[in-house]
Amino acid sequence: MLEYRIDRRSGIATYLQIVQQTKQALRLGLLVPGDKLPAAREVVEATAINPNTVLKAYRELEREGLVEAKRGMGTFIRKSLGGAPADSPLHDELDGWARRARAAGMERDDVAALFASVLDQHFKGNGDA
Known about the structure:
Blueprint: H1 14-27, H2 40-47, H3 51-63, E1 67-70, E2 74-77, H4 89-103, H5 108-122
Antiparallel strand pairs: 1-2
Helix pairs in contact: 1-3
């Protein structure tokens, strides 16, 4: 089951962090159509955030057509995103690269900035960056 991690220092609204993490899990194939998202109550207990924040995130995902709320049953994944499964060979390559960057003394924000600049360079203009 998906466990949300909230970074209160990120500057990103909490509900958007939930949306982003759900989309990432969809892109990696960790969530597939039919899977159930954690109940809002479970997310609140695990993250100590306001229940309305969780509901706002789930409504946004529903608005985007990614999930469907079924009264009394929960919120379920409707469709997948992307095609980069977590067990892809590219995952292993990226994992090795991240380990080398950390061993070289790079901070997380430095690695993220470097990676974002490379993404921008390779995915200009198609909305994926």
